[in-house]
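Worked example 2:
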Amino acid sequence: MYQIEVYNAIWLFVVIFMLHDFEEIIAVEKWAKRTESRITDNSKWISKKIWQFWNVNSYSFAKRDVYIFLTMSIITFIKIQNVESLIISILYLSFLLFVLIHNVFHVLQTLILKTYTPGLYTAIFLVTPYTIYLLVLLT
């Protein structure tokens, strides 16, 4: 029974992360239009770098997310096929740590720009708690 729960928890992470990506895809264009003048008037180079990343239409952002989804699905599939493998476990745990760092960047971007950035809510309230849950479950 334990193995089935672990498999389900690992696969559910893909769904949860895609909900995060959907928030980004849905919000990116409206956010860019609403915050453009605020950011471009800001003289901080870091604000302009953040703006360059987020200043895309939803279609372009979704194309980026396809690669993230495929990579995540492959890593997850490999993990499911090799649950007991130490090397695969290290790879998967490294991936989870990367996701946590990704979520920290969402918070940092929001603090630097002093405005919501796409994906912030699901990063804080959904992806981060579930990632921590998986880290605890798998270690």
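The mean pLDDT is 86. Helices lie at 2-40, 45-54, 58-81, 86-113, 120-138.
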